[in-house]
Amino acid sequence: MTKLLKTLLHTVLAVAALTSCLGASAQEAVIRKNLAERVPQMPKIDEVSKTGMPGLYELRVNGSDILYTDSEGNYLIQGALIDTKLRRNLTEERMDKLTAVDFAALPIKDAFTVVRGNGKRKLAVFEDPNCPYCKHFERDLQAVNNVTIHMFLLPILGHDSPEKSKNVWCAKDRAKAWQDLMLKDAAPPAATCDTGALTRNLAFATRYKITGTPTLFFADGSRVPGYIDAQQVEKQLAAAK
Question: Rounded to two decimals, what is the model's pTM?
């Protein structure tokens, strides 16, 4: 291929790429404009992107919520997009990615830590003192060894959850106070201290869509919402390596 032909080919490819980008940008502008006019109560659109389904666009709103629309914004769809060939929930996978947490970036100062055995494996848990599933989880967790557990108090369930969480956080031995409460139903005595950590935990939960307890995070950033037993915890810890 001559130098001239190579130059022409590069020019054609560059123009094609630019045209494609401009087309995508124009399409996004149409979607944003039409939906803003037709659905004024709709949250601000953070991002518009094509999906693997022809003619279907993903709308990301509120940070990590997912909606779908067509190329003109004529229709709005809320629900799961399933790849039937691969048997994958694409919406769930996308949301998992959007809400993933860098374990190293977790605000550990707002948690208390329990170390068992060599503590080499890492686990972070968000729990409410009034959560029955959390109590079940705590009983099962006693069988898991060689792990460091960062426990984030998240008072979101009962009317007295904030008070119980405060008393645990302000206890001289937070880990013992928590274990006594969750395993023995022995409420910690009233105590006072700086409880800014609890407020920050609530803000963190809102930001990362932690809406239930227990919610677990593993060292690879994977999240497990809800109760799992000790065997499943072991499996997740092994996978997180």
Answer: 0.72
